[in-house]
TrEMBL record, chain A:
InterPro entries: AA_ABC_transptr_permease_3TM (IPR010065), ArtM/GltK/GlnP/TcyL/YhdX-like (IPR043429), MetI-like (IPR000515), MetI-like_sf (IPR035906). It is found in: Cell inner membrane; Cell membrane. The keyword Transmembrane applies. Residues 17-205 form the ABC transmembrane type-1 domain. One of its GO terms (biological process) is amino acid transport. This is Amino acid ABC transporter membrane protein 2, PAAT family.
From TrEMBL, chain B:
One of its GO terms (molecular function) is transmembrane transporter activity. Residues 21-209 form the ABC transmembrane type-1 domain. GO terms for biological process: amino acid transport. One of its GO terms (cellular component) is ATP-binding cassette (ABC) transporter complex. It is found in: Cell inner membrane; Cell membrane. The chain crosses the membrane at residues 20-45, 74-99, 191-217. Gene3D superfamilies: MetI-like. This is Amino acid ABC transporter membrane protein 1, PAAT family. PROSITE patterns: ABC_TM1. It is a multi-pass membrane protein. InterPro entries: AA_ABC_transptr_permease_3TM, ArtM/GltK/GlnP/TcyL/YhdX-like, MetI-like, MetI-like_sf. It holds the Pfam family BPD_transp_1.
Length: 222, 227
């Protein structure tokens, strides 16, 4: 205890913020890849694949991210796999983000008008060609605002990586607080940094949404 | 490598899990009810001509939606303590979750209010309904009916998010799991069981909301539009 907030502390927080950004990017890329696979599986012609991917989404969306984190970080080692905090956080976020993005993107793929499918079929395009050349380019445009909006959720959710000891923004705040014991000040600073990271993205998402176009799936999150 | 799973040791502790699940549900129900009330008021403020009320509501929604729940929980926890107020972890958790979900509910309700056509309100004015009557019968209920699916998903997410309150040792399901795994060294089994418990809780909540929807919105039931 003792001492006051100085430049070193702020540097440490800055470093934490950089890790928050880094972890968010890992989650976005990993979760994006997983989400793309899930979304395609969810609209697959095979009933089995649809059911399987649907079950995955239901299971992950019914489980808190915190529990997934604990399961990978504390659970896997008891089975004999050793996991670093960064690996545990990245894996959990990828699994979690994949389910949500997969569901958002499924909605976007399905909101491309039916006639587009039929017209592409009429042009004798194969299923893969229809998907790549006709449906996906339109779906990507529909998907942009909700995906940008979901990035805010990703940034906020990386704060849960602090519980497995990964030193991102929230955790670096806890560490500083342990030496200074000025919780209100420190958590307020952290909240401000998160806000500064998230607010511009929220605004961008809203702006993209207002640009009009077809109805889009609403993103929910805590 | 040989997998060596033993769910028995963990399952023996089922009364503790049950207590945790009950507390999780209590937190969810309290925050849902209070959050819905805040949402209804917040959405009215956001649309009101009073710029102060609209501004406050706007700042509240944006602040909460752009900061992590974990940080909000710590701020409420230490904020209340610094004012010299001593509350149980459960109360602090309930307060933090309510503040959080209130902001999301405000945003959803506002979208619902915006979806009510102006003509409906003008028609109600033409029928000489009072402002309160118009708000209640013409704006609030039809709006809630429209955004009911979004609202209920949000409340289920809130229940899942209540797991974060384990960090201030509110003894809900996740905190119980942390305790049991440190006691039995069966982390994998414990968290798998807790994940299943959460999935069950979200199914229970979804079913409950669906049934509630049938009771609350008989018009919709008659029309046969799914909730």
């Amino acid at each position: 205890m003792g001492g006051s907030l100085n430049a070193n502390h702020l540097m440490f927080l800055g470093q934490g913020a950089l890790w928050t950004i880094g972890l968010s990017l890992i989650a976005l890329i990993g979760g994006g890849l997983a989400g793309a696979v899930i979304a395609l599986c969810r609209v697959s012609p095979s009933r089995f694949v649809r059911l399987l991917s649907g079950a995955y989404v239901q299971l992950i969306q019914g489980t808190p991210l915190l529990v997934i984190m604990f399961l990978t970080y504390f659970g896997l080692p008891t089975l004999g796999f050793s996991v670093s905090p960064l690996a545990a956080a990245s894996a959990s976020l990828t699994v979690y983000v994949g389910a949500y993005l997969g569901e958002i993107w499924r909605g976007c793929i399905q909101s491309v008008p039916r006639q587009q499918w039929e017209a592409a079929e009429g042009l004798a395009l194969s299923r893969t060609q229809r998907m790549i050349k006709v449906i996906l380019p339109q779906a990507v445009r529909i998907a942009t605002p909700p995906t940008v909006g979901f990035m805010v959720q990703i940034i906020k959710n990386t704060s849960l990586a602090s519980v497995v000891g990964f030193v991102e923004l929230a955790r670096s705040g806890q560490i500083i607080n342990n030496s200074l014991f000025e919780p209100l000040l420190i958590y307020a600073i952290i909240a401000v940094i998160y806000f500064a990271l998230c607010f511009p993205i929220s605004r961008l998402s809203r702006k993209l949404e207002q640009r009009g176009g077809p109805a889009r799936p609403k993103i929910l999150a805590v | 490598m040989k997998l060596n799973l033993d769910f028995g040791v963990v399952l023996e502790r089922w009364p503790a899990f049950l207590d945790g699940a009950v507390m999780t549900l209590q937190l969810a129900v309290i925050a849902t009810l209070l959050g819905a009330a805040i949402g209804a008021v917040g959405a009215v403020c956001r649309r009101s001509r009073n710029r102060l009320a609209a501004g406050i509501s706007d700042i509240y929604v944006e602040t909460i939606r752009n900061t992590p729940l974990l940080v909000q929980i710590f701020l409420v926890y230490f904020g209340l303590a610094s004012m010299g107020l001593k509350f149980s972890a459960f109360t602090v958790a309930a307060v933090a979750l309510t503040i959080n979900v209130g902001a999301y509910t405000t945003e959803i309700m506002r979208a619902g209010f915006d979806s009510i056509p102006r003509g409906q309100i003008e028609a109600a004015e033409g029928l000489a309904l009072s402002r309160l009557q118009i708000y209640w019968h013409v704006v609030l209920w039809p709006a809630v009916e429209r955004v009911y699916p979004a609202l209920t998903s949000q409340f289920v997410l809130l229940m899942l998010a209540s797991s974060v309150t384990s960090q201030i040792s509110a003894e809900e399901l996740t905190a119980v799991a942390n305790y049991i795994q440190s006691d039995t060294y069966r982390a994998f089994e414990t968290y798998i069981l807790v994940a299943i418990a959460y999935i069950a809780l979200s199914l229970i909540m979804r079913t409950g909301f669906w049934a509630l929807g049938l009771v609350l919105f008989p018009r919709r039931r008659r029309l046969g539009t799914p909730l």
